[in-house]
Amino acid sequence: TMNKKQVIKNTISFVKEALDGAEGGHDWFHIERVYKNAVLISGNEKVDRFIVQLGALLHDIADAKFYDGDESIGPKKATEFLKKQHIGEDIIIHIENIIMFISYKSSFDTKEKFNSPELDVIQDADRLDAIGAIGIARCFNYGGFKNRSLYDPEIKPNLEMTKEEYKNSTAPTINHFYEKLLLLKDQMNTKTGQLLATERHAYMEGFLQQFYEEWNGVR
Fold first, then answer.
1. Which of 64, 140, 154, 216 has its CA 20 to 30 A from that of 56?
2. What pTM, to 2 d.p., does this model score?
3. How far apart are CA 96 and CA 25, in angstroms?
């Protein structure tokens, strides 16, 4: 029989190694924060804790953004790893689905759907890491990584984007707050997630207000 503690340890080692040198917002520390948030949130939810732990650790093993938009690499890598750990087929399929459906851009696909309480918890944990102080830091870090401008008053946020437009956007970083980050608060799945998101959301709003005041030289 498999030792769950040992499997979690092995998974952490696997993920750390796979993400060595990753972009700062999608590195091991991001995974670790999502993992901790997921465990925290799952304390108030009826979920399989083991699946939450595995899914949180493996959810960003190969983010499509860094693989020319290829969304199949993550699930593939995770499955290969889990098979070596002798994990049951039903758990592997569940983890694959979590990886495929966790990302914000999958919310553009209304046709395909996968739901589970474990996905709800991990998705909340992942979205929490995209908002608040850490969300702001990650957002600008990624914008710098893509050499985007901070802000351009001439370029308005686009709230009607298709999935393709969203994936290929080169807009200034501030626009991303309106196109994604400020929308997350109302998309949380769990009560605990909603509570934490509300605090972080308010922090981002304060940041934007301060940003515009400084930009425009007003006090």
1. 140
2. 0.89
3. 22
Spatial contact of 18 and 64, defined as CB atoms under 8 Å apart? no
Contact by Cβ (8 Å): 59, 34:
yes
Place of tokens 């739901």: 115
25 class by beta-carbon count within 10 Å (0-12 exposed, 13-18 middle, 19+ buried): buried
What type of residue is 115? N
Cα 42 to Cα 197: distance, rounded to the nearest angstrom: 15
- Positive or negative, the CA dihedral 177, 179, 182, 187 is negative
* 148-160: pLDDT as tens digits: 999 999 999 998 8
Distance CA 5, CA 35 (A): 15
pLDDT > 70 fraction of the chain, expressed in percent and rounded: 94
Q: Which residues of 67-96 are buried (b: 16+ CB within 10 A; e: fewer)?
A: eeeebebbbebbbebbeebebeeebbebbb
How far apart, in whole angstroms, are the C-alpha atoms of residue 43 and residue 108?
29
Residue 107: DSSP 8-state: G
Tokens of residue 85, six digits: 């750990």
Joined together, the tokens standing for residue 213 give 């005041």
In contact, 28 and 16? CB cutoff 8 Å: yes
Q: Has residue 79 got a pLDDT over 80?
A: yes
